[in-house]
Amino acid sequence: MKILHVITSLYTGGAEKLMVDLLPRLAQSGCEIELCVFNGEVTPFKTQLEEAGIKIHSFTSGSVYNPLHILRLIRLIRRGEYDIVHTHNTAPQFFAAIAKVLCSVVLCTTEHNTSNRRRGSRWYAPIDKWMYRRYKNVIACSEQVKYNLYHSGLVNSEKIITINNGVPIERFSNAVPLPEIRNSIHYNSRIITMVAGFRWEKDQDTLIRALKYLPKNFFLFLVGDGIRRSELEQLALSENVSDQVRFLGIRKDVPNILHSSDYIVMSSHFEGLSLSSVEGMCVGKPMLASDVDGLKQVVEGAGIMFKHADVKDFVAKILMLEEDKDLYQATAEKCFKRAQQFDISQMTNGYLSVYKELLTP
Questions:
Q1: What region, left, alpha or beta, does residue 301 occupy, with left being phi > 0 and alpha being psi -120 to 50 degrees?
Q2: Domain 169-342 has CATH 3.40.910.10
Q3: Is the predicted pLDDT of residue 44 greater than 80, yes or no?
Q4: Hey, which end of the chain has fewer CB within 10 Å, N or C?
Q5: pTM for the predicted model, two decimal places
Q6: What's the rounded mean pLDDT across residues 241-258?
Q7: 317 touches 304 (CB < 8 A)
Q8: CATH T-level fold of 2-166+343-358
Q9: Residue 277, class by beta-carbon neighbours within 10 Å (0-12 exposed, 13-18 middle, 19+ buried)?
Q10: Residue 242 CB: number of other CB atoms within 10 A?
Q11: How far is Cα 27 from Cα 139, in angstroms, rounded to an integer?
Q12: What digits encode the pLDDT tens for the residues 304-348?
């Protein structure tokens, strides 16, 4: 079967990381896999996919909402003769739905978040309902995503299939620490690391503000990039903690950075199923996460939850682990055990099953 995945970009993010981990495995299973990217700017994720042999169709480096992408997508679908077009993110979902009016193709999509800025809007609801009707299946990346999507009233329940996101567990668990990370700070310092795009649904702000209340030997390493970077850099300056924050940008050695850390954190306003949290739980360090949908379902009962956007509660939880070494180790062990439930092989098999079902007469 020939499948085209469509996504907005290949910057840092859960959906983007899913492309890097999933598409080569689908290709190895015998599928003919190609990827369409609306913003085709070169990134480490894009380079990794090209090195893995995935054919990438790049549009422009401008706005991902450029309506000309609809015409470009129609031409690509017609020329490529794909059996299935699988979309990710809002613009590809909507533009592919429009393209289907003029192209005979089977559509499916993956919902990566428990919420978004359109949900609950009476203006967007009719548009979203029309869009989802064009899709034969909607894959939810967690049960909470499925629950929220169904109760939004936008999608019929029989269309929604849950396939938990997964990560290559061994790649993260077998990595080694990166000497340059530790060498960049004092030897007895403590490192908190968060891996996430600098977007509005993430909450790096809480971690930056927390540094004021933590000992001076605590450092925050932020891996990723995005439209809020300058805003976060300014926040670190205004909070007088800029000397304790390291902006590492987009990296290809994330597993090594995680192994170099003392605490892994995911602070968000909402999530779908956080791949970064699963990756963080693979490396034998405690994971802390804000108690929001999409994180609770992954981390709760293994890692440590803190109140959403609550600086003082986050600080209290970090210091609790710092002062109790037995709790620190027990939490790390529980996190590693939990991560085993999200191996990427299970996700790959789930996607293959959906594709086969979609093409069954």
A1: left
A2: no
A3: yes
A4: C
A5: 0.75
A6: 95
A7: yes
A8: Rossmann fold (3.40.50)
A9: buried
A10: 16
A11: 19
A12: 999 999 999 999 999 999 999 999 999 999 999 999 988 899 999
Where are the domains positioned within the chain? 2-166+343-358, 169-342
Is there a shared CATH topology between the 2-166+343-358 domain and the 169-342 domain?
yes
End-to-end CA distance of the chain: 14
Q: Give the phi and the psi of residue 254 in degrees, each rounded to 5.
A: -55, -45
For residue 335 the two structure tokens come to 């996190």
Determine the 3-state secondary structure of 58 from DSSP: strand
The token duo for 213 is: 């209340």
The stretch 70-98 carries a mean pLDDT of 96
Model confidence over 59-77: pLDDT tens digits? 986 788 999 999 999 999 9
Alpha-carbon gap, residue 310 to 313, rounded angstroms: 5
DSSP state of 173: H
Distances (CA, A) of 82 to 7, 52, 74, 77, 218: 16, 20, 12, 6, 51
Residues 337 and 326: their CA atoms lie apart, in Å, by 17
